[in-house]
Amino acid sequence: MRVLLVTNDWPPDVGGIQTYLTGLVARTSHDVRVLAPRHPDAEPSSDEVRRTGFMWPTRRIAERIEAEASDFGADVVWFGAPTPPALLGPRLDLPYVVLCHGAEVSTAAAIPLVRGRLRRSLAGAGEVLAVSEHTAGLVARFSGRVVHRLGVGVTLSGAPVPSERPPGMTVVSVGRLVRRKGLDRLIDALARVPGWHGRLVLVGDGPDRDRLGRRANRRGVALEVRTGLDDAAVRSALREGDVFAQPCRTRLGGLDWEGLGIVFLEAAAEGLPVIAGRSGGAPETIKPGVTGFLAGSRREVIAAIEALGDSDRATAMGGAGREMVEAEWGWEAVIERFDAAIDRAAQA
Questions:
Q1: Residue 158 pLDDT more than 80?
Q2: Whether the predicted pLDDT of 157 surpasses 70
Q3: Of 239, 247, 250, whose CA–CA distance to 304 is shortest?
Q4: How far apart are the first and last CA of the chain?
């Protein structure tokens, strides 16, 4: 089966959606070509087409999708997110599949001029997939159709090797530096943990970088921000940590929330106990009290950090998290569901 993936989220841009899509493309049994925006740092690839800028749902982009699908001989068009280009789905002559992640659905649904187009796009899709149970439920309620949870896959590397660490606890967080991640709450909590001495390592970049730096300085929290890291360097940073923490939160009256949080699973795969927020699908990545803690308030973050100050307990939770990822979050089942969805869409 030949599949044309249409996405604005593709490397060398970095993010959870990019990581997820590249994992699916690398493992599916189907033949995939990617239509993505031009990027100055993109390496030439016979499997990628970059003839447009950011793809909005315009007639010109619809014509481009149809031309690339025809040139490739695509059987199915796969939209990597429900907006913006997926809104063109009903105009295509080919069956299409839509993959939903998180807040992009509720945000688009709140815009009157977009709401109807999004509902029609989802209704007309051969298959609608979601990364988490939470996202699947929200999209099903909005669209009135069946939405299948696809889930995510995480690859386990070799057994984590302890790295040299400075004295005190090292707390690591990976992701975009935006308010939804709850990193201001994390900084405030660390400043209030009795007797806490350590450092906070943030891996990523974003509009909150300077604000978080000033906040940490005022609170007396040792902060290190690392940007531009490749996958190997991110894994290395995780292995420096004693704890992974990202108390993500839902914002803007429920419009901005966490679809799942692959990074929680990636941290668990490296043997770290995880502190996650209660936003969206994030709780699906944690077994509270076994692999880590859910923390929806500063007080809960403080309690979790205090509990993980017991190194034996932290080590046990980290080991349990790695076992959970291996048993429940492997790629094999995800790809089986994905390939079956593509087959169903093509045959409908």
A1: no
A2: yes
A3: 247
A4: 14
